[in-house]
Amino acid sequence: xxxTDAGMSLFxxxxxxxxxxxxxxxxxxxxxxxxxxxxxxxxxxLIGVGRLGIKRYYQMLKAQPEVYxxxxxPWMETLASEGVxxxxxxxxxxxxxxxxxxxxxxxxxxxxIPASFANEMYGExxxxxxxxxxxxxxxxxxxDCLPKGVGKQRVVDFLLNSxxxxxxxxxxxxxxxxxxxxxxxxxxxxxxxxVSVCENQAQVPGELLDLHVGGNANGAASxxxxxxxxxxxxxxxxxxxxxxxxxxxxxxxxISPCN
Length: 259
Description:
The protein is α+β, with helices and mostly antiparallel strands. Helix content is 35%, strand content 15%.
């Protein structure tokens, strides 16, 4: 199974292993009144918020670099000194900053400022749309604006309620436990442990630090390899998973959590 666009759609495999869209998930969303498309007028308003927020960040970076500088992105100061006059609506990954409109108005994504400043630059302006839109940081430089009710929590809810996954036999991994992966952390102490691969330990809530691996993609790969190796040696196929058990596997990793 594979969920795409932050839980907008769910794909399952057919008899030959090829992905097909889950009509059952789509029907369940429709039955619950979950709207998975943003109105055109709302999209334009969100684009406007994004443009203002992005421009404001670069203006503040130029005026107060000691406050708004992010050492990971030195090129931003060069961009700030040149001035950001226009912010394109584009799906071109080489265009930064930019605003993306994904799918058929399924989401609006702001790309180009550090996620740590997202609330300051976008939060107040997005507040009037909180009944229709949920927004969250999804990467070091990106923020997603999604239709209300769409998200990874929705996918897990569906999988649990339909019996496709079970507590004690499932775990989640994510790199943004306070952002777009927050919905995956809700069962951490209730049968679905969450393993954090966030590259910055300071962004991991205290209740999730017991299973913090760090390392992002490399951390996830190391954990999954450890998981497979350990289960082959020690775990039974029907052994229930718990946060305590998964923590033992985390402790076997040779990588160190990022700080």
